[in-house]
């Protein structure tokens, strides 16, 4: 999708505008180094295009922009939990409206800060007070950081992920390195397995790699580029592709969508809410991912 052609709601600066896409508003960044699109619904990065290069982020052609459903593709913010360990799946952050609180720009790029605050709706789902900020840095590379702070008078426990969908030319001609050897296989009921140094897919994958290296590299032969993913504040990296049968089973993914995407996620993984990361009152945590090609 060409986000530059969307109707402009308001111009905030030379580089930052608010655009409308069906029922959602998008923070649109257009800088000489790169362009990006960030949905206020879900605090969801939808696009990152280094100038003169293809998009690094994949979005489904069937994504729903009704302001209710989670967006399929991009970088969903899974918080305050990851997975189906509570309802709704992947938490409420990815389906809640975020607020644009700040944007800054200079010759090096643009920084956009969004905030998610507690509300009656979030309290009904998860009864704690929190301050969540998503900082998106758009330059030669993309850095997305989720800052969460416990502003309650009691400790709470969380998990989460920056669920990045990478855009690749052809998943059959893509190699991934740096994810580590040990993984928990969600397709085998959580069995702990040992993998190889290099991953080449020929079928669906849903793995929690427990010992990822500092950098995960995706060699995208068809688009002649190496995509580097560097995560921080995580305890694992999740790799996922639903393959043909999975894509057909999702109403918001085009049937051939699996052919051009690979999820490489910065994850705080836990098997239950109680087993997640605990923050005492006043404590903060930052979960981040940096993506470059």
TrEMBL record:
EC number(s) on file: 5.1.3.15
Classification via InterPro entries: Aldose_1/G6P_1-epimerase (IPR008183), G6P_1-epimerase (IPR025532), Gal_mutarotase_sf_dom (IPR011013), GH-type_carb-bd (IPR014718)
Gene3D superfamilies, alphabetized: 2.70.98.10
Annotated catalysed reactions: alpha-D-glucose 6-phosphate = beta-D-glucose 6-phosphate
Top-rank EC class of the record's enzyme: isomerase
This protein's record includes keyword ATP-binding: no
Record key words, sorted: Isomerase
Domain of life the protein comes from: Bacteria
Keyword Metal-binding: no
Family: Belongs to the glucose-6-phosphate 1-epimerase family.
Protein name (database record): Putative glucose-6-phosphate 1-epimerase
Source species: Vibrio agarivorans
């Amino acid at each position: 999708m060409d986000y530059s052609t969307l109707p402009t709601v308001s111009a905030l600066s030379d580089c930052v505008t608010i655009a409308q896409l069906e029922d959602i508003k998008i923070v649109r960044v257009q800088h000489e180094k790169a362009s990006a699109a960030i949905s206020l619904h879900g605090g969801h990065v939808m696009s990152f295009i280094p100038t003169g290069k293809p998009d690094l982020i994949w979005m489904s052609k069937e994504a729903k922009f009704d302001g209710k459903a989670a967006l399929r593709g991009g970088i969903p913010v899974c918080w305050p939990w990851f997975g189906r360990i509570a309802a709704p799946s992947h938490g409420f952050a990815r389906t809640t409206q975020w607020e644009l609180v700040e944007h800054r720009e200079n010759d090096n790029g643009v920084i956009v800060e969004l905030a998610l605050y507690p509300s009656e709706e979030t309290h009904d789902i998860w009864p704690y007070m929190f301050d969540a900020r998503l900082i998106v840095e758009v330059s030669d590379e993309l850095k997305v950081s989720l800052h969460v702070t416990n502003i309650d008078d009691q400790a709470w426990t969380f998990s989460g992920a920056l669920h990045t969908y990478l855009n690749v030319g052809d998943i059959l001609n893509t190699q991934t390195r740096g994810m580590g050897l040990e993984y928990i296989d969600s397709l085998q009921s959580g069995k702990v397995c040992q993998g190889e140094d290099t991953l080449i897919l020929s079928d669906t994958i849903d793995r929690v790699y427990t010992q990822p290296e500092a950098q995960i590299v995706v060699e995208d032969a068809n688009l002649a580029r190496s995509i580097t993913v560097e995560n921080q504040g995580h305890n694992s990296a999740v790799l996922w592709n639903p393959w043909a049968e999975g894509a057909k089973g999702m109403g918001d993914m085009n049937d051939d969508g699996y052919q051009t995407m690979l999820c490489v996620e910065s994850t705080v993984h836990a098997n239950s809410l109680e087993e997640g990361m605990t923050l005492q009152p006043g404590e903060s945590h930052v979960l981040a991912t940096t993506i470059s090609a």
